[in-house]
Write a structure and sequence with these properties.
This protein has 316 residues and is of the alpha/beta class. It has two domains: 242 residues, TIM Barrel (Alpha-Beta Barrel); 64 residues. It is 44% helix and 15% strand. Helix 4 runs parallel beside helix 6 and helix 9 packs across helix 10.
Length: 316
């Protein structure tokens, strides 16, 4: 399976999850068969003004590839400058965030706010394509609100501007995660443009992945919130595609996944992991309470030492 010359082992892709896509999580998603990874979003102004602050974080690991970095901004020149700074890093491509609905993004006319000005999107994508020989993509929502559904117009603009593929989340920016993902609009866009489409929204298991794939005819599938704390989702979806059977995860199996995550944190963040607040945040952010013993999260937060947290994890 491939998008142009980007070879992928399957159809499942990890979404750019803000605050969750640390290197330990990315590596674990790759282990569990995510075929393409996206970093969390990076504001181009922050990258340009404080690049040294991000340098260690921006380094990639061999086993993370293929991996795209997602950028958010609205100035074509600044995005080009950010790409120039990032070219020495080993990313396989650059993705433009056109879906973020945070108040800050709306206020500064970045992310999902840009869906209101398709021409501006075209100028940004065009400049990105001119700035690199690597892949360029974008991630959009179907419109800014229910009164301005313009996914096809935006998609055609992105295609015309030279992007290699496009991800569509089937909700509006205003909707956030409320309601259901609109598969009809993803299907309609797929039928009317030529670049590959990645379907996103409400994919939580094998059956919902199959629904997205068969109904919209999208080329690939992006999994977001369902992957948080549960990288095995990629393995389970691919297993379902092969066998038409759903897998369940026992608490014992989840314990192994949690231990894997913790050991990867120790490996990729040997210094940061010594910070108690950092470790508590990472572990409590990762865990799925329903798959852990009762009060496990509270027990982690109550610990006063790194060793105490490690013992809890290893003996969960």
């Amino acid at each position: 399976m491939s998008i142009k010359k980007l070879n992928l082992v399957n159809e499942t892709i990890l979404a750019p999850l803000t605050d969750f896509n640390d290197h330990a999580f990315l590596l674990l998603c790759r282990k569990y068969n995510a075929s393409l990874l996206f970093t969390q979003k990076y504001n181009v102004n922050a990258l340009i003004n404080k690049f040294q602050k991000f340098e260690d974080e921006l380094k990639t690991y061999k086993n993370e590839h293929p991996i795209f970095i997602q950028l958010i901004g609205n100035d074509p020149q600044k995005i080009s400058r950010a790409i120039e700074l990032l070219e020495s890093f080993d990313y396989d491509g650059y993705d433009l965030n056109l879906g973020c609905n945070s108040p800050n993004s709306i206020k500064n006319n970045i992310g999902g706010s840009l869906l209101r000005t398709p021409a501006k999107i075209g100028a940004i994508i065009n400049k990105m394509v001119q700035s690199t020989n690597k892949f360029v993509s974008a991630k959009i929502r179907i419109g800014f609100d229910r009164y301005s559904i313009n996914a096809l117009e935006v998609a055609k603009t992105i295609e015309k501007s030279g992007a290699d593929f496009l991800t569509i989340h089937g909700r509006t920016v205003e909707a956030g995660y409320s309601g259901k993902s609109n598969l009809d609009i993803i299907k309609y866009v797929k039928e009317n443009i030529d670049i590959p489409i990645i379907g996103n929204g409400d994919i939580i298991d094998g059956p919902t992945a199959e629904l997205m794939k068969k109904y919209t005819k999208c080329d690939l599938l992006m999994i977001g919130r369902a992957a948080i704390g549960y990288p095995r989702i990629f393995y389970e979806i691919n297993y379902y595609f092969r066998n038409h059977k759903s897998l369940k995860c026992s608490k014992n199996l989840y314990k192994k996944i949690l231990i894997e995550y913790y050991l990867l944190l120790k490996k990729v963040y040997p210094e940061k992991i010594q910070n108690l607040s950092f470790l508590k945040n990472k572990i409590t952010q990762f865990i799925r309470p329903k798959l852990c013993r009762r009060f496990f999260k509270s027990a982690i937060l109550e610990q006063n030492t790194i060793l105490g947290i490690e013992n809890l994890i290893l003996n969960e």
